[in-house]
Structures are given as structure tokens and as C-alpha cells.
Amino acid sequence: MSSGNHQHSQKLNKPAFTEKQAADLVERRFGLKVSGISLLPSYDDQNFHVHVSRHEVNGSCTKEYVLKITNWEESQNLKLIEVQTQVMIFLNAEGFPSATPYFTKDGDIMCLESIDTDCTTKSYMVRLLTYLPGRTVATISANPPILYEIGKLAAQLDKVLAEKFHHPSVQSLHRGEFIWNLANIPLLEKYIHALGQNRHREVVAHVIQQFKDRVVPKLSTFRACINHGDLNDHNILVDSTAVSSERPQIRVSGILDFNDMSYGYYVFEVAIAIMYMMIESKDPLSVGGHVLAGFESIVPLTTEERDALFPLVSGRFAQSLVLAAYTTLMYPENEEYLMITARTGWKHLVQMYELGQQAVEKIWFDTAKTYLCNEFV
């Protein structure tokens, strides 16, 4: 949901393949007979849910895939896309519920596909990924045990990548001016005009200044790692396993969308997870403590990292809300998808702003502290 380099948003090049073109692509490049295909919601890439005929799967029981066509701009960075895909393969091998690529007929994990657009020919990077079952967290009532597990998953993911993932192109994850990296909150000043002159702009300006004052001077003290960068309520899938009819057990069944991966810090990942888990919650301020407790069961935060948590969560709200407003100005036809976070996000950010850091942190930290005794784990 949060992919894209908004430094060049004026030339945002989202693919525009028809369902027929996508189906032909799957058959021609991957050798699979498509029995059904439908477009999935997306930010600046294009995704299709693909059904293939049973006899074409070469003995595998998998019959559903996601065809992912990367936007033109990011398709130029082959090393970055390769690393993102190799991370998915690595995490799947480590036991994480991550999709894996279906190889092309030439034995590659991805391929470039050219298409004529507006009298020009553009090439897009294409991958066919395994389809993961489950419902998005956005469609369920995320109770404390689920929130705890999501926090724990976020920490486990970052930790295993930091300790065990190696690839010749891993340096491509140092993405510098990437707008969605939490270190780049000040870059929002380029897009804040999209909000107009109102209360929302005032709050965002405060968030940016707070980030400059309280986070930037301490960045060098945070522990670095590779971040997924977009563990939102639409990128985490869950399913239920019936332990008993009275007590069904919910587990994470899928981690989606690795487009926003970049080098960052452990505290970035937990802040991003907290922010997105707040979106649909009936009690958003309580969310942070449960997610934090799960995260700290694997990676306890330092004092400096905990002090930065509030401005980082606020900063992620600001990133999502400002960039959604900015992109909607250019692409009003995609407003429904772009403004998903804004439906409740502004209310949550303004509430945090009005309560202040000390009051919100007390709720989070007091809740997290209860897990040290006897809670939902």
C-alpha cells in the first residue's frame, strides 16, 4: 500500500495491463494455462489474482498465484527487485509465511515484459508469486493476542534478516531518499501543500518538527537492521485453527508486499506495525502496548528507542496521510484505495497530538508491562 518513490510522483508509471494481456503473459512466460484472472487493488504496481488449470501445475497442489507487475520506475532497479524476491525465498525457507516466485520457462525468478503505451514502449518487471491463503487483519477484530503475535512476528522477521540474510546486492536496500523510510519524515515538507491550510496541516507540521528535534539527533544510537517497512493491516494475512469451537486460535498465514524494504532500525518496524494496527481498532490507543510487548519478547528496545516510539508512530501516520492526499490529487480515479488509511487515520493522529507523548506512552508502556507477569502469550 505504501510503495513508490514520490520524488518522481509526477511521472508515476503504474502498469496498465488488461486481464487478457496479463493472462497471455502468464501463459507465454511461465507456461501455465490460465483458467481465471482478476485485478487486485494496488498502489503503484499492478497485481492480478491468477487461477491456473490443475494439469498445468506439474504435480503441485498450488493452483492460485499473484502476478505482480512492478511500476515502470522501480522496474529499472533490477538489483533491488532481485533482493526483495530473494528475501521472500529466504524467509519462506526460514519458516515464515512468505510467498515464493514461480520460475519462468527460462528458469528465472522474474522477467522484463514490454508493452506499448502512449506511442512508447515500456518494460516492466514481472513476477508470478504463490498465492497465500487467509484474511487480511483489516477484515477481522484484532484482539490483544493477535496484536502481540504481529509485534512478535515483526521482531522475528527483522532479527533473522539482520543475522542470517546475505546477498551480493543487499546494499541496494540502502535507499537514501526513499520517501517511505521513517528516517525521511522531513521529506514530507515537499508534499504537505496537498493538505491545504487547515488543522491537519498544522498537526503534520508539528509531527515533522518533533521528528527533527527528538529523533534525528538520536538516529545513530538506534540498532540497525533490514525493515519490511510496510507491515500494515492489508499486508498481514491470518487464518483460524479450531483448537476448540469455543476457542479458535488465530495465526498469521501470510506476509505480503516487500516493495518497501530498506535498511532502517528495529524501532522503525515496531512503530510502523503499531500505527497500522491502530487504523481499524475500536480502541486504537491500547494497540501500541500489545504490539510492543510482542516485539520486545524478541527484541527489547533500548531507552533511546522507546523515547522515539511516539514521534515515529506519529511520523508514519503523517507519511501515509500526506502522501495519500498528494497522490490522490494526481490520480483521483484511485482515491478509494489511496485513502484507506485516511478514513480513520486523521482521527487517530489528531487524538495522539492532543493527548501528547507522555499520556500516550503511559498507555503503551503500562500495557506492555503487564505481559511481564502473565498475559496472552
TrEMBL record:
<dbReference type="InterPro" id="IPR050249">
    <property type="entry name" value="Pseudomonas-type_ThrB"/>
</dbReference>
<comment type="similarity">
    <text>Belongs to the aminoglycoside phosphotransferase family.</text>
</comment>
<feature type="domain" description="Aminoglycoside phosphotransferase">
    <location>
        <begin position="43"/>
        <end position="281"/>
    </location>
</feature>
<dbReference type="GO" id="GO:0005737">
    <property type="term" value="C:cytoplasm"/>
</dbReference>
<dbReference type="Pfam" id="PF01636">
    <property type="entry name" value="APH"/>
</dbReference>
<dbReference type="GO" id="GO:0047992">
    <property type="term" value="F:hydroxylysine kinase activity"/>
</dbReference>
<keyword id="KW-0963">Cytoplasm</keyword>
<keyword id="KW-0808">Transferase</keyword>
<dbReference type="InterPro" id="IPR002575">
    <property type="entry name" value="Aminoglycoside_PTrfase"/>
</dbReference>
<comment type="function">
    <text>Catalyzes the GTP-dependent phosphorylation of 5-hydroxy-L-lysine.</text>
</comment>
<keyword id="KW-0418">Kinase</keyword>
<dbReference type="InterPro" id="IPR011009">
    <property type="entry name" value="Kinase-like_dom_sf"/>
</dbReference>
<protein>
    <recommendedName>
        <fullName>Hydroxylysine kinase</fullName>
        <ecNumber>2.7.1.81</ecNumber>
    </recommendedName>
</protein>
